[in-house]
Design goal:
The complex is a heterodimer. Chain A is α/β, with parallel strands linked by helices. Chain A has one domain: P-loop containing nucleotide triphosphate hydrolases (Rossmann fold). In chain A, a hairpin with a 2-residue loop joins strand 4 and strand 5. Chain B is an alpha/beta fold. Chain B has two domains: 189 residues, 3-Layer(aba) Sandwich (Rossmann fold), CATH 3.40.50.300; 72 residues, no CATH class. The complex binds adenosine-5'-triphosphate (2 copies) and magnesium ion (2 copies). The site of one adenosine-5'-triphosphate has 13 residues of chain A, from strand 2 and helix 2.
Amino acid sequence: MIETRSNNILTQAVVADPPPLLSIKDLRVWFELRRWAFSRAGYVRAVDGVTFDLGYGEAIGVVGESGCGKSSLMKTILGLNIPTSGSVTFEGQEVARLDRKGLRWYRSNIGYVQQDPFGALAPFMNVQRILEEKLIVGGIQSPAERLERIRKVMGEVKLHPADDYLEKFPHMLSGGQQQRVVIARAMLLEPKLIVADEPVSMLDASVRVEILKLLRGLQESHNLSVIYITHDLSTVRYFSRRIFVMYAGQIVEKALVDDLLNNACHPYTQALLTGTSEPDAANARTFKEIPPGEPPSLVNPPAGCRFHPRCARAIAGLCDKEQPPETSPAEDHLVSCWLVQK
Amino acid sequence: MAETELLRIEDLMLHFRTSQGAVQAVDGVNFELATNRAVVVLGESGCGKSSLAKAILRLLPRNVSRYSGKVFLDGKEVMALNDEKFRKDVRWVGISMVPQAAMNSLNPVMRVGDQVSEPAMIHLGMKKKEALGLASKMFQHVGVPVDFLDRYAFELSGGMRQRVAIAMALVTSPRLILLDEPTSALDVLTQANIFNVLKQIKQNLGISYILITHDIATSSELADDVAVMYAGQIVEVCDAERFFQAPQHPYSRKLMASVPRLRGEQEPEFITGQPPSLLALPQGCRFAPRCPLRFDRCRQDPPVIKKDGRLVKCWKYA
Ligand SMILES: Nc1ncnc2c1ncn2[C@@H]1O[C@H](COP(=O)(O)OP(=O)(O)OP(=O)(O)O)[C@@H](O)[C@H]1O
Ligand SMILES: Nc1ncnc2c1ncn2[C@@H]1O[C@H](COP(=O)(O)OP(=O)(O)OP(=O)(O)O)[C@@H](O)[C@H]1O
Ligand SMILES: [Mg+2]
Ligand SMILES: [Mg+2]
C-alpha cells in the first residue's frame, strides 16, 4: 500500500491542478437549540468556517475528536444538512441551487459509507434487496441490468461468489462482510466521490486493515475521490494524501500526510500525535503529556483560538482575543495558530 | 520473579448453554498475576474476554452449562467459597471491575457521587457521610473535579463518566481491578488521559490490573505482561517487553502485524479468515485453519510450551 501511495502522490499532484471536483467555501452549519426550561435558545456551531478543495482522484483524511463536527460537515456535503452560510460546489455546480433532477445527479455521484455497518443495513432486507434498492432509486429500470451491476460490484468488494451472499440477511454476516455490503452499495452508481465516515471504527483491528485496503484499492482503480473521516491518526496515513485536522467546528491544520506526521505545527495536532499510542512496552513506564480539559461547547465556543483554554503556549491578550488567520509554514501546509509565523 | 503472587487461575472453564449447543467461551484458561502488576488480555471480538472477566468474578448468566477450575486470590482458593462468602470476601473488596461500556451504564437518576459511595456503604459497611468523603477522595485520584459529586451522568462527558466508573471500582480499595475495554469508545486524548490516571493509581495505590482489550497499541500503555486469547483459550503469555518486540505464537504475530503504525514504514496486514465459532471448534489447534505455518501435528491439540518464562501453545515450539 505504501509504494502505491507514493506513486500515486506523483500522479495525483499532476491531475489535482485543474478545477476541483468539490469546493467548500467558508461553510457554516449551525443547528438551532430548542428553548428548554433551563437553556437559552442558541446555536450549535457544528461547522464554523470550513474551506477546502478536493481534486479528482484525491483522497483526504479528516481527523478530529468526537463532536468536533466531522459528521455534520460530511452530511452537509452529502446534501443532508442545509448550510447556514457558505457553499458546497461540485463540478462547478453549487449544491444548494440544484433542482430535484440536479440533486439526483449529485447524489448518484457521491457514495456514503457510514460509521456503523450494523445500523446502516436494514435488518429485514437481504443483500440483494439492499443493493437493488439503491439502483432503483438511482433510476436503473431493468432487473437484469441491476443484477449484473450488483454482481460486478460485489466482486469488486470481494464478496464472491456473489451467490453465497445475495440471499443473506445482515445478521448472518460478520462485521467486516457487512461493511463490504455498505461499500458495495456506495459504489453501485459509480460515484466520483466516496465519503467514508469512520468506516472501520466498529470493526476488529484485524478486519480494519482489510477494509481500508479495499477502499484504497477501489480509490486507485476507479480514480475515486475519497473523504475519509476518522479519529484515528494511525490509519489515515495509509489512506490519504492530505490530512485535515478539525477542532471545535473548524479546520486548524491542513498538510500532506508526511508533513503532518513530521512537522505538525498546531498544538492540537501535536497533542493528537502524542496521544496516539504505538505498541511499545516503554509506554507503560511514562506518562503522556497531553493538554488538560476537553473540547469546548459549540454553543459558546471560546473567543479567539478555540484551543487556547487548553493550550500551554497560549499568548494572553492575543490567542484569547483574536481568531488566528491561516498561515502557510510550508508548501501545501496551512495552519491557524498565532504561534506559527511564517 | 521475586514479586508476590496475587492471582492464579487454573484451568478455568465457562460454557454457555444455547439452542445450538454449548458456547465454549472460556475453555481452560491458566495465568498468574503478581501484586502491583498489570496483565493485558488481548484478543479479537468474541474470543471470550468478557466471559473470562465474568468467570473470575463469578458474575454468571443463567444459561451456564459448565463453570469449573480454580482461582487463587492471595493464595486462597476462592472458587470453592459459597456464593455468600464470595460476595462478602472477594467481589468488590478483593477484586472489582469496570465493565465493558461502563460509562453508559451509570444510573441516570442517581447523582454520581452517590453511585461511587454506594459500594463502600454496602461492602465496607460505611455510613453515607463517610462513604461520600471517600468517594470525593476517589474523584481526586481519577481526576474528576470534586464538585461533580452532585451531578448526574448525563451532565458529564464520556471521558468523565468513564473516570467515575473507575472511581467506583476503586472505592472499596480492592487489590485487583478488571478493566474490560475501558477506553475503546473514547477519543485519543481522552484515552491517553485515562491511561495516565490508571498508571498513577497503580503507582500510588499498589493496585493490580487485568486489562481486557482488542486494542494492541493502547494496551501497551499499561501492560507489564500480555496474555493473548484465541477462541476461548490463552495461546501466549509473555512479559510486555519481549512480547511487543517479538511475539511468538503465529496468531500473536499476525495480530501485531495488523496494527497500523503512526511512524515506520511497515505496512499493516490483515488476518485472513475468521475466528472459529465457539459452538463448533476445530479439532487440534484452534488457530490452525488460519495459520500460515500449520503442519500435520496441528491436527492435535498443542501443548503449552514453557521457555524462558514465556508460555506459548503451539507445536512449532515443542
Ligand atoms: N441535527 C442536529 N441538531 C443539533 N445538534 C446537532 C445535530 N447534529 C449534530 N449536532 C451537534 O453538532 C456537534 C457536532 O456533531 P458531529 O456529529 O458533526 O460530530 P462528529 O465530529 O462527527 O463526532 P463523532 O466523532 O462523535 O461522530 C455535536 O455537538 C452534536 O451534538
Ligand atoms: N450468556 C451467554 N449465552 C450464550 N452465549 C454467550 C453468552 N455470553 C457470551 N456468549 C458468547 O460467548 C462468546 C464470547 O463472548 P465474550 O463477550 O466473552 O467475548 P469478548 O471477547 O468479550 O468480545 P468483545 O470483544 O466483542 O467484547 C461470544 O460468542 C458470545 O456471543
Ligand atoms: Mg461522527
Ligand atoms: Mg467483551
